[in-house]
Amino acid sequence: MSVVTELIRTEADGTISFGNYELIQKEKMDGYEHEGDLYKVKTYREITKLERNGMFVYESVPGTAVHGLSVTGDTMEFEVEGSEDAQITVQMEDGAEYSVYIDGADAGSVKANMGGKLVLSVELDPGRNAAIKIVKGN
């Protein structure tokens, strides 16, 4: 897979992909409609951030490209790629505990803070995606 040159797009399976970590200057797209929600993405090599209806969803430092983001029930899944290891923050349920899987391997349990932010670190190699799955209460 590669960066999302249009900054954000809807995939054939109904998921969304966003982010371009190859950009030298920050670019953004606001008002992207997907399933009745409005999305805003800001991205470049130092950070990628996604908001839905004005609320935080995803952030990575440095910037990344996310493919196939899906949030269903108590699970968030996506593939991420970048030029180097990244710290990723996602919005989940306040104070809830989640199991995190990276490329199918159990990466442990993480508790979201009282603001609902869950932070994880992912080792990324250029040209290779890491599959992330976050499941509540497992």
From TrEMBL:
This is Endosialidase. The lineage of its organism: Bacteria, Bacillati, Bacillota, Clostridia, Lachnospirales. Gene3D superfamilies: Galactose-binding domain-like (2.60.120.260).
